[in-house]
Amino acid sequence: WREIALNTPTIWSTLFFENSSHIERGRAFLERCSPRGSNPPELCSGYLLDIIIATVPFNPKTVQNDDTFISKRELEKIFDLLVPVTVRWRSFYLRVRDNHCKKVARVALGGTCGRAPNLEVLQLYHSFFEDDNNVDDLIEATFQEPVICFANDVPRLRHLSLIGVNLPWAHSPYLEGLDTVELALHPDKIRPSYEYWDKLLRRSPDLRKLILHYSGPRERWDQDSLTYAWQGDDLWRSDLPSDRILLEKLEHLSLTDMDAPYLARILDRIHLPNVQRLVLELS
C-alpha cells in the first residue's frame, strides 16, 4: 500500500504551509507528485497543485509560540520551492499579516512566478486589518502601487478572492469570465474605479457568487479623473452603458459593512433575476 500511495500523485498534490516545519514536508510532497519524464509541466494535467500558505495560522488559539509562524525568510524558501512549478498551480491561497511577508509575496507574484496557465482559484488575504496598527503602517499596507500578477497570463482563472489586497485594475485583463468574486476590506483609494468594476461584471456573465465586504467600486469614474460615476442620489453619468449589468446566473450575493446609499447606487445598475441566497450585514 505504501508503494501504491507513493506512486499516486494526486494524494500529494495539496501543499499546505502554516509553520516552518511544513517546508520540508512540502518539498517531499512536491517530489512525489512531480511528473516523470520530460513532458513540459503545463501539459501534465494530472499533476496540478493546490497551494495554501498561511503566515498567520487559521486558528491562532492553537498556537502557543510565535516562533512557529512563517517568517519572511521562510516565506522566501517556500516561494523558492514553488516558483519553478508555477505553471502547475491549480489553486493558490495566500494569507499574510506583516508587511515584510507581503513584500516577499509582491516580488514573487509580480515577477519571479511568471505565468500561471492552469490557475483556476486565487485568494490573496492580507490580515493587517485584524490587528491594531498605527496610521503609518496602514498607509504602507494599503497605498503601495499594486503589482501585475503572473505576467497577466491567467487564462483559466474562475474564482477570485481579494481581502485587504488590490490589483492594478486597469492592467489585469484576466479579470473576466469569473464564476466567483470576493472583494473585502478595501479603503476607497485602492478600490477599482467604476469603469473597471463595470467591465469586470459585464465580462463575467456566468458569475454565480459575489461577495462584497467593505469594498466595491470607487465613486470616481476612472483612476485619474476627478469625475464621478454618479452625482447625487440618482443622477448617473450620461456616458455609462445604457443597459444595466445582467448577471443572470448569479445565485449567491453577500453584502457586509457597506453604506446603504452607496450600496443602493451600485445595485441600481445590476439586474439579478435569479439570486437564491442573499446575505446582508450592513453598517
From TrEMBL:
The organism sits in which domain of life?
Answer: Eukaryota
From the Swiss-Prot or TrEMBL record, give the protein name. F-box domain-containing protein
Provenance organism: Gymnopus androsaceus JB14
